[in-house]
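--- STAGE predict ---
source: upstream dedup step, 1 unique chain passed
mode: sequence only
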Amino acid sequence: MKKLSPDEAFYENLTLGLGSVLNSVPRVSNIICEKREPCQKTQVMTWEQRHGVYLPEDMKKFYLSTDGLLLHWSYQYGVNDIRRVGYINIPHLVQITLLRENVESNVQHMANAANAAGAPIATCISDSSKRSSSDTSFSTNSSATIVSGSTSMSCTTVSASPSKDQWGHPLPIIGPKTKIFEFNMVNDVAKVCLIYDTTGSNTLKIYMLELNGQKWVFLADSFSEYLRMAIAHLGLPYWELCFSSCGLPSWTEQLFLLLAPHLLEEREERRARIVDPAPERPYNSLDANIFRFKFKAANNKNVNVKR
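--- STAGE serialize ---
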């Protein structure tokens, strides 16, 4: 067995031996883990001071060991068809930024659609109206604050069961002091976000924001749990979408079924998309009686013929 260098041993331990596991999977090749320099303490302190929050202890130790993580691998679909598909990306520290997105038009469109359908309407309160209205409450369980440019929008949605999602996991309680950071983009349909409840906090939770419906989906209670989930899913592309309402793209689901079908079975309860069984189709049927007897050709020697 080849002896690993200190750097190789570090990344092998960091990824819980994922490289060795992938090496044993048929058709998987070109497994590459990019080696990165660690962040300096001054870089971590600068990031924390800029954003007014503290990195959790596990996340801080991670970035003081390596400035992010990039592991990718390829899958051989055919003789001359090898494609890079596997991908685990923990961004550089400086790439973790406040979620800035022009959502005013999206929220207004959603409110108009809900009003037309007779559904609960989301009311949006800007910073100026917050200051002018002292009796406004921001402790509603299903509230969302999204920073757009220099304007902060607080959106409060009236819901029958606002505190939990359809899988029983708590929805983010987002108020005026909540900090939301973009961590990863998933197939241009969702964003993985770090959510701090208050400014100056060192406790975060990781959620996924579905861009199509501005819907929050719970992913993990901590950075370490999110990293373990990525490793457990073998870095399969867009694995976070297992827990979304839109589900996995068909080509990604085929990879799951080929390489790790057990992951879909374990997570099926948390997938909003219902996979319907194939409808019954007519098939040609054979009569089993034809296999019961073996007919022998008649032997002329044993045949008595009367003349």
